[in-house]
Specification:
With about 160 residues, this protein is of the alpha+beta class. About 35% of the residues lie in helices and about 35% in strands. It contains five helices and nine strands. It is globular, with a radius of gyration of 15 Å.
Length: about 160
């Protein structure tokens, strides 16, 4: 997923008022302030109330659902190496979020987990470094995960 594709997606979603946060590798890039590796996809946490609008916006950009694992996630493909992985998050009045996980589990996102990063010419809503580290727990790390964690340790030891 190239930066130009990411910028197109985040600009389109922002322009339509969809509430989202960049997570995963591009989220790390936003925290570091630059792209440090290639990315297969763009991971987005999306306010569950905005999911239908998000799908409409992405559909207008040529994305179609490839994998439907709702309520946990939806993976969309736009062809030509463009992938967006959506994770619906239910927000409470205080701005805390909960995402459904597999087998009835949940993932908690306190309001403090949501922050602002920057990539090239864009401010990017994203997950905090502390929360990015937290979500890397509980599974076997791949090379890109180790890379991302090293980047996060550089900015938030």
């Amino acid at each position: 997923m190239r930066w130009t594709d990411v910028r197109t997606v985040i600009d389109a979603l922002s322009g339509r008022g969809v509430t989202f946060w960049v997570a995963g590798g591009w989220g790390v890039a936003a925290l570091v302030g630059r792209q440090t590796r290639e990315h297969r996809d763009l991971d987005l946490l999306v306010d569950a109330q905005d999911l239908a609008g998000c799908l409409t916006v992405l559909g207008e950009g040529g994305y179609v659902v490839g994998t439907d694992e709702l309520p946990v996630r939806l993976e969309l493909t736009g062809g030509q190496g463009r992938w967006v992985d959506l994770h619906p998050v239910v927000l409470d009045e205080a701005g805390n979020g909960v995402q459904a996980g597999p087998d009835g589990t949940t993932y908690a996102y306190p309001a403090s987990a949501f922050t602002l990063g920057h990539i090239r010419d864009r401010d990017v809503p994203c997950l905090s470094a502390a929360h990015q580290k937290l979500v890397h727990d509980g599974y076997v790390l791949r090379e890109q995960d180790r890379h991302d964690l090293a980047q996060l340790r550089r900015i938030a030891p």
